[in-house]
Amino acid sequence: MTAANEARTILERLGAGGPIWSSDGLEVRSPIDGSTAGRLAETADLEPVVARAVEAFHAWRRVPAPRRGELVRLFGDELRAAKDDLARLVTLEAGKIVSEGLGEVQEMIDVCDFAVGLSRQLYGLTLPSERPGHHMRETWQPLGPVLVISAFNFPVAVWAWNACLALVCGDPVIWKPSEKTPLTALATQAVFQRALARFGDAPEGLSQVVVGGRDAGEALAADPRIPLVSATGSTRMGRAVAQTVAGRLGRSLLELGGNNAMIVAPSADLEMAVRAVAFSAVGTCGQRCTSLRRLLVHESVADALVARLKAAYESLPIGDPREDGVLVGPLIDAAAAEAFEASLARAAEQGGEVVTGGGRLDRDGIYIRPAIVRMPAQTEVVMHETFAPILYVLTWSDFDQAVQMQNAVPQGLSSCVFTDSVREAEQFLSAWGSDCGIANVNIGPSGAEIGGAFGGEKDTGGGRESGSDAWKAYMRRQTQTVNFSRDLPLAQGVRFEV
Amino acid sequence: MTAANEARTILERLGAGGPIWSSDGLEVRSPIDGSTAGRLAETADLEPVVARAVEAFHAWRRVPAPRRGELVRLFGDELRAAKDDLARLVTLEAGKIVSEGLGEVQEMIDVCDFAVGLSRQLYGLTLPSERPGHHMRETWQPLGPVLVISAFNFPVAVWAWNACLALVCGDPVIWKPSEKTPLTALATQAVFQRALARFGDAPEGLSQVVVGGRDAGEALAADPRIPLVSATGSTRMGRAVAQTVAGRLGRSLLELGGNNAMIVAPSADLEMAVRAVAFSAVGTCGQRCTSLRRLLVHESVADALVARLKAAYESLPIGDPREDGVLVGPLIDAAAAEAFEASLARAAEQGGEVVTGGGRLDRDGIYIRPAIVRMPAQTEVVMHETFAPILYVLTWSDFDQAVQMQNAVPQGLSSCVFTDSVREAEQFLSAWGSDCGIANVNIGPSGAEIGGAFGGEKDTGGGRESGSDAWKAYMRRQTQTVNFSRDLPLAQGVRFEV
Amino acid sequence: MTAANEARTILERLGAGGPIWSSDGLEVRSPIDGSTAGRLAETADLEPVVARAVEAFHAWRRVPAPRRGELVRLFGDELRAAKDDLARLVTLEAGKIVSEGLGEVQEMIDVCDFAVGLSRQLYGLTLPSERPGHHMRETWQPLGPVLVISAFNFPVAVWAWNACLALVCGDPVIWKPSEKTPLTALATQAVFQRALARFGDAPEGLSQVVVGGRDAGEALAADPRIPLVSATGSTRMGRAVAQTVAGRLGRSLLELGGNNAMIVAPSADLEMAVRAVAFSAVGTCGQRCTSLRRLLVHESVADALVARLKAAYESLPIGDPREDGVLVGPLIDAAAAEAFEASLARAAEQGGEVVTGGGRLDRDGIYIRPAIVRMPAQTEVVMHETFAPILYVLTWSDFDQAVQMQNAVPQGLSSCVFTDSVREAEQFLSAWGSDCGIANVNIGPSGAEIGGAFGGEKDTGGGRESGSDAWKAYMRRQTQTVNFSRDLPLAQGVRFEV
Amino acid sequence: MTAANEARTILERLGAGGPIWSSDGLEVRSPIDGSTAGRLAETADLEPVVARAVEAFHAWRRVPAPRRGELVRLFGDELRAAKDDLARLVTLEAGKIVSEGLGEVQEMIDVCDFAVGLSRQLYGLTLPSERPGHHMRETWQPLGPVLVISAFNFPVAVWAWNACLALVCGDPVIWKPSEKTPLTALATQAVFQRALARFGDAPEGLSQVVVGGRDAGEALAADPRIPLVSATGSTRMGRAVAQTVAGRLGRSLLELGGNNAMIVAPSADLEMAVRAVAFSAVGTCGQRCTSLRRLLVHESVADALVARLKAAYESLPIGDPREDGVLVGPLIDAAAAEAFEASLARAAEQGGEVVTGGGRLDRDGIYIRPAIVRMPAQTEVVMHETFAPILYVLTWSDFDQAVQMQNAVPQGLSSCVFTDSVREAEQFLSAWGSDCGIANVNIGPSGAEIGGAFGGEKDTGGGRESGSDAWKAYMRRQTQTVNFSRDLPLAQGVRFEV
């Protein structure tokens, strides 16, 4: 059975089969072997989708938040039950290795648990008024329908970050998944339906999937009935969404490109650094927004580290991600491989020396050899995010310089330092340290926990999802003052007596 | 002495005189008597302004926040010392009555005190990691130069909301004040200079004023070195700023138009309601973003309330805002009076009946009679914000209907209900109540305290300033994870062993 | 089968039977029919119990909090599975009606969900240092073994409030349940063992039950290895615990007596008030710490309300709490009935007039008729908490007076007002309103949600459990400052140069 | 002029002279030269003091918190104006060097600024109810009169930590200062009176000083009208206060003894360590609760460090703390010197070897030579806090062992590590690291900033003062639920239909 057919079979087992297929819709393909599973009908009319979401909102915002949390708890239970199937679909459709597929579903489960806890929190404030006989409070209210535009590389987890929070916050969700991974989206909806069935009395239209391409995303982003658009993808896409949404004074939550670096200091534990580099530069075949792309090594340890990395890279098992032991699966499509090769060529032109990797494997699906390239400087190609496993290595002699190099790119998602020096680690985490949304010490840039806020600065778009108070993006804040006295004093002592 | 010349004299006394005047710059005018004080040189070159701000940022972000707070504390002290002068300038340049001018400076002082307290808080989080031997924290870091675009009607307070927080957060400020009120801006800078002199070692360029028109604002808003643009003004202006800033993936904080309503229920204290209406509909000559524009009265009390309001309106002292007892000063300029008259005419066409007011006074400066208009429905003119004292009165019979009427306009800034019913008050404050950023009970829509977050939803732009955690807009959030173990576990239990 | 034997059977089904019985231990009795199920062996030696808890602490504090949360999540799952059995045991041993027994287990489940959410929060702070090159943070660390002393009337929920938070916070729990309800405690432990088995690698001794009387509680409370003692029960007991623990500078969390009032204002919805009174004065046969004991009614509605209450009381189905429709089950024991009768007699001596109720039913078990007594003033008997269903009714004419009456008792747990007036409701919730830890509007005093902090002031002991930041009681706070500069500045600018 | 007479003169200049002196009261003495300034009348009758505080409370709790903050702001202003005088009194009465006296008053000023900020915060929560048509909030209410018992070594700052927060929180303060430092207390009150005069309409009795000894403190601690007793001093005193207050179910906030250690690791910056040791072991002549008492040095650097410390100690300028350059002033009294000598003798018996110091200087006042003693183990004398400058030096070979040594004493106030290793630093700050309330990296144990919570665990008493959410100790928490629906649902789905 081809990978695509296996995906189709799983989808049917999850109860999302049949009428979704069509003769002229979106082609469903597996990067594992290039097989196709047929075409999916695209959502023809977006108007009823948005209308249903608005109607659902009017009912759902009246449901007490702890009760909304119960739906998310049930969803978490159903995800646990469907974990293997859903993870397998992630592998089949996005090409991730088994452990990563399972990890992605685990992340959905984790965020369910977190959101359930939030459902009795969503804390606003009470605060003292300057006026006698008044009290003030700040309350967070449901916002309205949320549009989630997700990318192929985290086909389900990023939606779950958004959807679980949105649902607990009182907001219905419209999901426009990547054209490259619609099946995982439909499978997730099927799992969600199971939770809905157990829950009982939720309104129709709490969660909807729109199958379609860029046009569908753009049309939805322009709809004034959708107060929040949460979009993950390229900086180019994000910029377009941001402008569209700004033009109607809506709210955007953007998770765009990264160009993530690791600084390796002389005191670093090199053994740990090697392992961290391997996972973060090569995991998901270099197709994470948090993938490691730049390795900034102190000159005293650069040769040793590169040598160890070269050996590690050359022993990496590349192949079908379903197979035991494989660590590097396919790129998502041929365009990705072309970008990989083009960047390697540009790197060479710009003075780079390929240490290892490059080139495609001769088999079905798009398999390439992850590359390490030593660069003389952060040239144009280094400043640019190529969504493939190329690791640029550069050296530094002074820690201030290393931090400057880290910050010199347009993107600002993730960053890390390997060091055992308190001074270096804390400088890296200081106001004049890393300018990224994520900064790690002795951990690679990739693989965040759901308890922290996830997202980045600059061209990464500024959005934050998942933990901390990221939920506030899904609500509107209301400052409330109640006068229970018989007087009408004005703030700041203003007097105005008619 | 003309009002404009009085303003010029005060400015000189504050130490901001001399070389700022020019033969062909921005004309400085007082709405009180239409007098002019000369022309101000416009800022010729914006490039060095931004460059200075960036340089100041690099120094200022390293200054400990409590020390930054000390500068703001000194500024508060200097504002207390200059309160009368600065308030007088507000009166002279914006036309506010004396008590409102003083209230506006008091608001600057209040926000200084608040910001000083924040300077030892700016709380991020520590949180537990799911990985053994790891700890996580979230730290808020300085963001960079902040552009503040302010409007004529709060010529200094809104800047202070932004600037005091920005300075404590580690960000230099560039201020583009309204073309109609440049002198208060220059005077505020002179007061700020006094604080700087006492402080001692602050970098150059922490606070800069740009004298200029819309072009200057647009050029600055487009500059990628300015991560945050905080703009107050019309929805039209805000939409343009939002798109410009979104196009470079910057951050906007928008405070745009309001169309604020008061719901009056049968149990309302009518005496209090009358006083609240008078202040909020007529104060600042109806030129607050939070001015009351729509009065939604239960049919059983509408006639009584309107009768009392008519009497109150007809006794309002209109005139030179410097004079004791005057409650209604001038409109800002002739265009405002034209808009006032045009809206009254449109209201009449749309079925409105003028209860009182309308028409200009025959004297220097632009003085009009605040108007009350009973409307049969929320017609086009009611949905639109006219920046002048027109109060549209409408009736309702059912509380749900009243809330729907309140929410039916495009803007979402401020709202209020007068009632003594717990059920009505709390419904108004619930998830299915007012959709505004501010919701008051037994208080008019106008006159917020600085401790709460200020701002609104929908066409109001979504920004929040001043209290609560509004300071977070002036910082960037960093999620930090430190591994102090000898292992390298991955989140979500992912395994990847090279 | 007697009620006690039914309890024994259920316990065995849950896997906690056999060797726990003994010929000379604690007698296990059901208040439903006075039947006994045998005697339970008392915990002979407390030393190994504490030692095991300390050892467990050293291991458990190193387990990441989100992983600790997973144990609590599994416990919640097991509680869902065992809900009916456990609820039945609550009925059999404490005499609650079926719905209340189920509600109590539901409360355990709710707090599990809440604690799971907390396991990724337990938020401390990051904050700015006044010294350059320093950062500050506040971290909450595990505290150590927690002793939970629980009362018969919430035989399992209160333990769960404590235990679920303690476990997530990193603390093992030692449970000394009431001598009157040991079986529910043992059953709960059996359910917890199931969760432990699924969890896998938790240390021994995370949760232990001590079967015994007051001596066991006192000995444990004096043990310096137990940093926190959380005790629920009478004010007399609490005072003793507080002194013992204070003598070793430990921490107490006390939930002691209440003497809870409802104020009924003229605008109150009397239909709702009647229902609220009935549930909160009569539910659990008046044996909740939050039971309504004082009804403070405006003189204009007192007669009408009392008449409706009299009718409601006289229709109350009293009897075996296992039976459908029964609302009033037995008192816990004969001593409780004696206290009930003695208080009624004292009330009569002090001018009270019994409106309805009083007297025992002639059947096995201790069943009495809930009483309503009109009192001329808050006499001695009214100031005192009798743990039985006596409702004292008093009248007032002025709202200030009503609030004073509410606050005039030594206890400070729960309170409420029925009114539709914003002014009255908000005054009641103001700094000069109710002095209790819980204050409700249009809700009886009884039946809190787990999301809020639960507990009271004055003789109620000051502790807070369950929601909000009650978890902080189970942790220790550490203020951490890291100097990553090369200088050693002192705070407050102190200079000390050797 | 003797030191005591200089103090008397300053006190008069501050306006607190005259009638306070008496022939048979508390003797006022300066440790600088042993001179006496006369006797102070002790507070004869405590009853009216408490009654006044209660009355003040009833008025003050109704004053809006931001307005209460204005009083504290004015107090900060007056402290700035009186800084030199008040600091000089600290020097004269407590014997601190000039810089430390100034630092102590600066700390008062800092906490004023912080408290002013809090006056618009005092944040409670709004949170979602599980019941439809309900809202929940948590509000922090004023608590009542607060008793502050302060110690001689921080004669004014610790009171200010308490009083500024208490006043902003709505609580009057009764101050029982140390018998050894009454003049600074009276001077502080005089400064506070200036603020009150400017403020205008505060109630009488907001802040009162009780002159007296231990009896006065005990009597006040037992008074049930004082809900909070905040006491700083010895563990013995604290234990007594804790039991007294617990017996009436009041609240204690205890800051008791410390036995603070510094761990020095091989990677430590020894130059910084030497300076940190000198300040923290010798500053305030070793009479801070955070003074360094135990130096735990890695065996590889112990000899080098001790040698440098020996040299530093032997060059310490000892003498009149008013003199420029002096770093070591007098002990507070002869009893302190005796304890110093007795501990040195016991240390010798227990195997200690005096490296330097010991012995008294031959001059008026009690001047001793700070001592360093190498100990073979943490013997009995090491486990005990001697309030004098004795530094015990011990060595370790393994970092886990160092942490265990740090934690092995009964006290738990402050702790620190000098290291540049991330692993060591973070382990020290972890759940299995330092067990103290304060844990520093590359900073001595002494000299906290006011933004963090100050206090410690175990025999240190568990209280927290100053920053973070320490203000909550001065308020009572109220969980508020408002039902604005027409239904009366019960939590946890309980059903109870009469």
Structural features, described:
Four copies of one chain form a homotetramer. With 498 residues, chain A is an alpha/beta fold. In chain A, helix 3 packs antiparallel against helix 6. Chain A contains 15 helices and 22 strands. In chain A, the strands form six sheets. The first copy, chain A, has a seven-stranded mixed sheet, with helices on both faces. A five-stranded parallel sheet of chain A has the order 8-7-6-9-10, with helices on both faces. In chain A, strand 11 (260-264), helix 10 (270-282) and strand 12 form a beta-alpha-beta unit. Chain A folds into two domains: 3-256 and 461-478, Aldehyde Dehydrogenase, Chain A, domain 1, CATH 3.40.605; 260-441, Aldehyde Dehydrogenase, Chain A, domain 2 (3-Layer(aba) Sandwich), CATH 3.40.309. Chains A, B, C, D: Belongs to the aldehyde dehydrogenase family. Chains A, B, C, D: This is aldehyde dehydrogenase (NAD(+)). Chains A, B, C, D: It comes from Brevundimonas viscosa. Chains A, B, C, D: It is an enzyme of class 1 (oxidoreductase).
